[in-house]
Specification:
alpha+beta, Multidrug efflux transporter AcrB transmembrane fold, Alpha-Beta Plaits, 4-stranded antiparallel β-sheet, elongated
């Protein structure tokens, strides 16, 4: 833990740095692979909508003592009264069997209740049934889509006003859409049932992702504005330094958020079974993980790429590059005047016999002139002159 804290301090001060912005093509490839897998799930298998969306009947058999092969037992019981339906059977907790079917008439529903009670050797009062109409499911779907659209519009407006540039808000929105597509695609690829709780989870992870992204992009804006004023770093170097300064914070926040969610997922899968709690937890776990990735590896590199041809960015990069070349030329001239060859290690060593520093030394996302690294020079004190 101490080493991790030291790493965070080194990343913040610039003593160490990961080249996140410079390796953006690698992150784009990783993101493209994730999106392709998500689209394969969406276009291939499609989403497994719950009964709340598609409509139908749901029956629950409680206090089952001997589960045995509960899937075949429940399927056989349902097919006796409703042979045209294809039931979906799941286990909830340790002794409750859930059976979901298409729309059943009242007579069929009562007959299925009786058959399930007989098949599992429980009383009919232990078998409950409920019906969800398809119109209610359509309403839920429509409201969920409307909520998503309104959320994205409001986020776009707030980001544009806060960052005062459409390119920064565009980078954030692309990262948000990346999170939504991957999360929904994972549901489709794994066949996880989509319920209203899942929709709530999708909207929740968008809020979490935008929170983490604003923290990172705000630091990027602060660092790049400072670079514009001082001309000590290029725009890409300043953005990369900002991402490194918020890297440990983002990881810590995500881990703290993922631990309780992961606990809920494990408890839901092992003990509770399908339900609102598990549906919400799964969506949150996937979304928080991919949201952390996008806020670090997608939003900022994309912002740098969008702004690389802006006049102020081109001017800044030109100033920095000219200063680097000028300082390198001066260092070479100094080395030549002292008689040190270009390949002489003493010419490039800060501690050489000539006392001259190396031309430049790369330091974590930026370059600092060696004279600045050595600090103030300590001159020896002269002895006081004797008085006659």
């Amino acid at each position: 833990m101490a080493r991790f804290a030291t790493l965070g301090n080194d990343l913040y001060t610039g003593k160490r740095s990961f080249d996140i912005v410079g390796r953006r093509r690698l992150w784009y490839v990783v993101s493209a692979v994730l999106i392709v897998l998500s689209l394969v799930g969406l276009l291939g298998r499609g989403l497994n909508f719950g009964i709340e969306f598609r409509g139908g009947s749901e029956l629950r058999v409680s206090s089952v003592q001997d589960l045995g092969d509960y899937e075949d037992t429940a399927t056989a019981a349902v097919e006796q009264a409703a042979p045209d339906t294809e039931p979906t059977v799941t286990l909830i907790g340790d002794d409750t069997v859930r059976v979901q079917t298409g729309q059943l008439r009242n007579a069929q529903s009562e007959q299925v209740r009786a058959d399930l009670a007989e098949a599992f050797d429980v009383g009919t009062e232990e078998v409950t049934s409920s019906f969800v109409g398809p119109s209610w499911g359509d309403t839920v779907t429509t409201k969920a889509i409307q909520a998503l659209v309104v959320f994205l519009l409001l986020v776009s407006l707030v980001l544009a006003l806060y960052f005062r540039t459409w390119k920064m808000s565009a980078a954030a929105l692309v990262a948000l859409l990346h999170d939504v597509v991957f999360t929904v695609g994972t549901y489709a690829l794994l066949g996880i049932e989509v319920s209203p709780a899942s929709m709530i989870g999708f909207l929740t992870i968008l809020g979490y992702s935008i929170y983490d992204m604003i923290v990172v992009l705000d630091k990027v804006r602060e660092s790049t504005e400072q670079a514009m004023d001082t001309s000590r770093m290029t725009y890409a170097e300043a953005a990369n330094l900002a991402v490194n300064q918020t890297l440990v914070r983002s990881i810590n926040t995500s881990v703290v958020a993922l631990l309780p969610v992961a606990t809920i997922v494990v408890v839901g899968v092992v003990f509770i079974g399908p339900g609102t709690l598990l549906d919400l937890a799964v969506a949150l776990f996937i979304g928080i993980a991919v949201g952390t990735f996008s806020s670090i590896f997608i939003a900022t590199p994309l912002l740098v790429q969008l702004r690389q041809h802006d006049d102020e960015v081109v001017t800044l990069d030109g100033k920095v590059n000219r200063r680097v070349q000028r300082d390198a030329a001066k260092a070479d001239a100094v080395a030549g005047n002292t008689g040190l060859g270009e390949g002489d290690p003493a010419a490039s060593s800060p501690g050489s016999a000539s006392g001259r520093p190396a031309p430049r030394e790369a330091v974590t996302g930026r370059e600092v002139h060696p004279w600045a690294q050595r600090g103030p020079r300590n001159q020896p004190k002269r002895p006081p002159r004797s008085r006659r």
